[in-house]
Predict the structure.
Amino acid sequence: MDDATDAARLAGAHDGPAAGGDLGAGGDPGAGDEAGDGPGGDTAARLADPARLADHLAGWLHTEVTAGGGAGVVFGLSGGIDSAVVAALALRAFPETSLGVIMPCHSDPRDAADADLVADGFGLPTETVDLGPVHDLLLDTLAAARPDIRNDRLTGANLKPRLRMMTLYAFANRLGYRVLGTGNLSELTIGYFTKYGDGGVDLLPLGELVKSEVRALARHLGVPQPVIDKPPSAGLWAGHTDEGEMGLTYEALDAYLLGRGADPATAARIESMRAASAHKRALPKIAPKTTER
């Protein structure tokens, strides 16, 4: 998920729906995979059998993590549906070595309460790290060099997911774990995540599932109903919702991505976001040593 205003985000480093990557052509997490190739291959067909999909994704996680020498997994537990589904899959893959980290940063108290609800329901070990003081100190330090940065809501909001990812990698380094992201195909396609924030992860188990598919999988996995029902939000500021910031409903976005079409304005908006966010889904380009290539 991301932050900031639509226009700034679309072009920025997070930085919002548009600041990010493309689906297909710019190194998108789900692009180019044939059915069955990625973590979710042929998702529309497979979601008719959520039990099979859950087993597949848990197995994929276990294979990928252990192949790279990982001993377990760590992820942010936000109190939202995506992180709840990742929690359930993680526990299937690593029953003894899964860790959820709750990282409030001037957040709605309901988010931490919902995260606890998920953890208690699944029996997930958690750690809580309050990033509010660190966020404020960093913002003060930055403002000492650039006073106007304090008035830029997008910049301040993007610090939050980047601090959270730093925190997750600290746990991962200490424990020998791999960091799981919670982004889904709907968000990845339009760049609705923060570059080197919630986009900076090792594995994306939900990367080929649109939001509606994540909801269906959540119901199968037993995610608490209040978490399934609450409006998706990255919690970047008071009253923030994903759909409000994106300027799109997940219903319309999912329908388009699943090939069910969209009105011309919606289709144009999605494709614009996809193109503007391509850099968020791609690895840094490396300059050639010579001009002869």
